[in-house]
Amino acid sequence: MRRLMTPKVLSSAAVALFVVGAAVAVKFTLPPTTIENMKAGLDGTLLDVSAAMGMKLDALTVEGRNMTAREDLLAALDIERGSPILSVDVAEARTAIEALPWVRSAKVERRLPDAVHVLIEERTPYALWQRTGRYTLVDQDGKAIVDVPNADPALPLIVGPDAPQHAAKLFEALNADPELAGRVRAAVRVGERRWNIYLDAFEGGIAIRLPEANVAAAWSRLAMLERDHKILERDLDFIDLRIADRLVVRIHKDPAAEPAPTSKKKPAAAGPKQSI
Fold first, then answer.
1. pTM to 2 decimal places
2. Alpha carbons 68 and 270: distance in angstroms, whole number
3. What is the distance between the alpha carbons of residues 25 and 153, in angstroms, rounded to a whole number?
4. pLDDT per residue over 70-122, tens digit each?
5. Within the chain, what is the greatest distance between any pair of CA atoms?
6. DSSP 210
């Protein structure tokens, strides 16, 4: 059914057209501030007219939201039901939504006459960053997402001030051997230039000292040593792969197996000499 404009709407539309004509006629004679004020009034009139025609926010749909809190999303949008749909600034709303910690990117659309649709791409936790007693989820881009109270065994632990920015490149090299990469429990950034990798356990596990360059080659070398010699089944403290043509290992020392230190009695001090 065709919608007819009511007399009130027709009157408002006539006022809007009159203001448009007036603004065009005087734009070369009135001061700029006066013209801007007239434009602001015109915008308000058009919004009122559009709302009277039924172009008011009545539905908000969101796609892709899993971790982002509903309250945070609504606060970022800052729109109310019943407000003119044309008053929604989609660019500003998108910027506010993308500032939320879990949101990687967002798209905001007005779907006339009465709906706003939000499409969200959320960040995926890639590793757990340990720093100053805190655990922070980070994504593959090295972006910190949110702090969490405890470590997550499903995610590799990374340590070091610049670890998040370099972790993706490291794990890309390690994933060349998926079976061995599956045993990685932690990666510690040393001197902001190279990595120590801990297998099977962070504390008490074997530390793999990787070189600054050619990480993939060193990791492939370790995988070959494991296949051919089962080197990771030995009781080792660390394996040093920093020198391409040399392998340095240290056997893990068991404090219980070491002999207890023996105490030696000090010789008795000689007494004063006595004359016979």
1. 0.69
2. 82
3. 71
4. 999 999 999 888 888 888 899 999 999 999 999 999 999 999 899 999 999 99
5. 140
6. -
